[in-house]
Amino acid sequence: MEGQDDVKHQVKEYFSKTAENYLVKGEVKEPDLLHMLQTISFTGQERMLDIGTATGRTLMTFAPHIREGIGLDLTPAMLAIAEREAKAAGLTHLSWQEGDVENLPFADGSFDLITARICAHHFPNVQRAVEEMARVLKPGGRLMIVDNYAPEHDGGDVFINAIEILRDNSHVREWRLSEWKSFYEKAGLSFVVDFEYRTFHPLGAWTRKSQTPSDVVAQIEQDIIAAASDESIRDIFNLKQNQQGEWSFDLLKALMVGVKRESP
């Protein structure tokens, strides 16, 4: 669809200009990554695919535990950074490939483990993406998606997606956990929310990272002020203003795990 192609072009454009802002190095402190490392029983023989790999943080974190890893991303600028960092670290069993999650260039049953961290809200067709990831998983293989999610509260859902789209026009949607359950199950995967956490975002830092224009930042601030007048929305996202007058909020995040059914 033309609209979906437009979104993918916007994703490439946005992350091409902000790629270096997404480079994370050093000790692993991300709550979801720490949880994943602690709960996965690796054999050392896993073949892993990381979707929306960006600058390669997830795949490089898993590198000591797997036999082979491939990082896939739409944006060449992101992949160039990942390749540079992996080469510097001597991670020769990792490779990087440009590609689209909705049309994965891999055979059925190719991977033991597939991860996708903080990228699914950019997928134009999430159901298609989950079905493709399920297709290239081996029977018994595991899909682990971490993403921001919208609350089941209608007003909260509308609010968070509205400010996300203002900040970054490549944003498609933060889905509700109930919607994610449906995506997984329709793709032949089990579904469990394995871990939930929040990330704190002052408005200034959040919009500087995305290079959001000042007039749009002002509109986001007005939307936050309006939302804060609703006690339910204010509490869901912990909307608050500091002594200097800057607004901040929490994003809701979840690790959603699915296992592909074994062949009969």
Automatic annotation (TrEMBL):
First and last residue of the signal peptide: none
InterPro entries xrefs: Methyltransf_11, SAM-dependent_MTases_sf
GO molecular function: methyltransferase activity
Pfam families the UniProt entry points to: Methyltransf_11 (PF08241)
BP GO terms, sorted: methylation
Keyword terms, alphabetized: Methyltransferase, Transferase
Residue stretches making up the Methyltransferase type domain: 49-145
Coiled coil: none
Protein name: Methyltransferase domain-containing protein
Lineage per the UniProt record: Bacteria, Bacillati, Bacillota, Bacilli, Bacillales
